[in-house]
User: Fold this.
Amino acid sequence: MRPLLKWAGGKRSQVKRIVGLFPGDIRERGYHEPFFGGGAVFFHVEPNSGSINDINPKLMNFYRVVRDDPEALIEEASKYRYEEAEYYELRTRYNSPGLSEVEYAAILLYLNKTAYNGLYRVNSKGEFNVPFGRHVDPTIVKPRSIMRASRLLGEIEIRCGSYDYVLDAAEEGSLCYMDPPYHPASETANFTDYSTNGFKVGDQERLRDLCLELNKRGVNFVLSNSYTEKVMEFYGGHGFRIESLKTRRSISSKVSSRDSGYDLLITNNV
Assistant:
């Protein structure tokens, strides 16, 4: 199925190439995705067991509500109207404490469908600050998709924390797809403001070390990152398969900056 949310760095256009790097019996294995975001690969694979994780607590609350209380989510989100005044009122509520888990999830869904270009961006205080988007009659709630996603998430552990949990969660023979914040291709290319936590060179090195450990433990992984000399340096020389993939940046504050580039796909399934 398609993802429920549009997300920066989403892999919907690349998903077949990514999944093609995994063993063919992917649905029969445990599947773990520690940088979940919109979850395009997960929703394409439709795994039967495993875990998902992201550091964004409101995002993971959304998926927990989808899994555990989809009818309430549908009912709440269906109340909201696509109007500019309502958008800013709901944005203020989303940035305020005291809402129920269902309300936070429903407003996140609404904002995702009605914000400018589907961006999720927060300021230094962690407040969602994307302006109202000009869309043509957007569909905010798709009940059948939400119910289907709820069933897919039924046996999946939903976490919110550090990506390194997979060292404990992933068993030999299981699969792990990792889509971390990319190493910047240039000084002006670094997009990290979808969360208040940056992902620095040291984090990239620690992620590389985690991949080496997963490989030792017999866990199959595929990792996406930018095509840069630094990333090639990190992952070259370890026996991993490294492929380039032409891509187009679909989310940007400026349409003119949504240019084509290259990603790297790195896997130990050689």
